[in-house]
Specification:
Layout: E1 2-5, H1 10-19, E2 25-27, H2 45-60, E3 64-73, E4 80-81, H3 94-104, E5 112-123, E6 126-138, E7 154-156, H4 168-174, H5 176-192
Parallel strand pairs: 1-2, 1-3
Antiparallel strand pairs: 3-4, 3-5, 5-6, 6-7
Helix pairs in contact: 4-5
Bound molecules: inosinic acid (IMP).
Inosinic acid binds near residues 149, 150, 151 and 163.
């Protein structure tokens, strides 16, 4: 089975590729010749995931799924949340975003945060949503070079390393996206065994 993952983010494709069994081939947007910046104008993670999945379905008529992720910080009342990608501006720069968040938390004792992912799967004329949450905390400084986005400043619950210091296989077992993808795979398995 071939399925499009509606993202331009190579890191996300790599993470997801490691999780899916070999008989499921993940196609990136590039692989189907889609170089468009798909609008993410909804006010919620689910809304944006649906927008991205629907864009591919409408324009390419292929089975696909899309994810949208937010980092929700407790003492910032859930910010940056759905605006995580452009927290420090439209340039969507990871270093700028992390610097802004570290500055916003400078005098805060409560550094609890969570990543949340919503995946929208468009298959056989139906749309199904899956979610995944990774609780943790924002560190005081950046550590690690693996991963992407906010990984160098996010320490998952139960670990003394940031996502950017953990091997991708470990990140995948505890991450928001990993958990949502596992639910999606369970769903596909059930469909195949029907
Ligand atoms: P989006 O789902 O690509 O729109 O992600 C929103 C923001 O969260 C972007 O700034 C991403 O870089 C960041 N982000 C998404 N997933 C992760 C992750 O697994 N680790 C760290 N940052 C992430």
């Amino acid at each position: 089975m071939e399925i499009v993952f509606a993202t331009h983010n190579k890191n996300k494709v790599y993470e997801v590729q490691l999780l899916v069994p070999k008989h499921i081939k993940i196609l990136s947007l590039e692989a189907i010749g889609c170089f468009d910046e798909i609008p993410e104008t909804a006010g919620t993670l689910a809304g944006n995931a649906k927008l991205k999945a629907d864009y591919v379905t409408q324009n390419y008529k292929l089975p696909c799924f899309a994810d949208d992720t937010g980092l929700l910080v407790e003492s910032l009342h859930g910010a940056p949340g759905v605006l995580s990608a452009r927290y420090a501006g439209e340039q969507k720069d990871a270093t700028d975003n992390m610097d802004k968040l570290l500055a916003a938390l400078e005098n805060k004792k409560n550094r609890n945060a969570k990543f949340e992912t919503v995946i929208a799967l468009n298959l056989n004329g139906q749309q199904i949503l899956f979610n995944g949450i990774a609780p943790g905390e924002i560190t005081v400084t950046k550590s690690g070079v693996k991963g992407f986005g906010y990984d160098p400043i996010f320490k998952p619950e139960g670990y003394d390393k940031t996502f950017a210091e953990l091997p991708v296989e470990i990140k995948n077992t505890i991450s928001h996206r990993g958990k949502a993808i596992k639910k999606l795979l369970d769903y596909l398995n059930k469909l195949e065994n029907q």
